[in-house]
Amino acid sequence: MIAQLLTQPILVAAPKTERRKLFQVLNAWIERAEGRRRLAAMDERALHDIGIGRCEALAEADKAFWRA
Questions:
Q1: Is 37 inside a domain boundary?
Q2: What is the tally of structural domains in the chain?
Q3: Which of 9, 27, 60, 61 reaches 20 to 30 Å from 44, CA-CA?
Q4: Is residue 5, in this structure, part of any structural domain at all?
Q5: 3-state SS of the chain?
Q6: CA 33 vs CA 1, 8, 25, 28: distances in Å
Q7: pLDDT at 19
Q8: Residue 36 phi, psi (nearest 5)
Q9: Is 50 exposed, middle or buried (0-12, 13-18, 19+ CB in 10 A)?
Q10: Judging by beta carbons within 10 Å of its beta carbon (0-12, 13-18, 19+), is residue 52 exposed, middle or buried?
């Protein structure tokens, strides 16, 4: 998906630094979404090990991927 996006005419014409910034943002969003999915899937023991409760984990997992 990202590879297809980066070959679009508007991005091909964009300066290299702009494409790099876009790729970094997209990558951060993907990593954030994956991390929140993993957090939501953790059991009580794992959550206790990292020092958060179920409510905190679910609140974080419910955030949109573009929100830090």
A1: yes
A2: 1
A3: 27
A4: no
A5: CHHHHHCCHHHHHCCHHHHHHHHHHHHHHHHHHHHHHHHHHCCHHHHHHHCCCHHHHHHHHCCCCCCC
A6: 16, 24, 12, 9
A7: 84
A8: -70, -35
A9: exposed
A10: middle
7 phi and psi angles, rounded to 5 deg: -100, 0
Interatomic CA distance for residues 22 and 14, integer angstroms:
10
Digit-coded pLDDT (tens) for 4-54: 655 666 666 667 888 889 999 999 999 999 999 999 999 999 999 999 999
**What does the pLDDT read at residue 16?**
81
Q: What is the pTM of this model?
A: 0.71
Judge whether 58 and 40 are in contact, CB under 8 Å: yes
Residue that has been written with the tokens 């830090």 in this structure: 68
State the residue range of the domain holding 51: 16-68
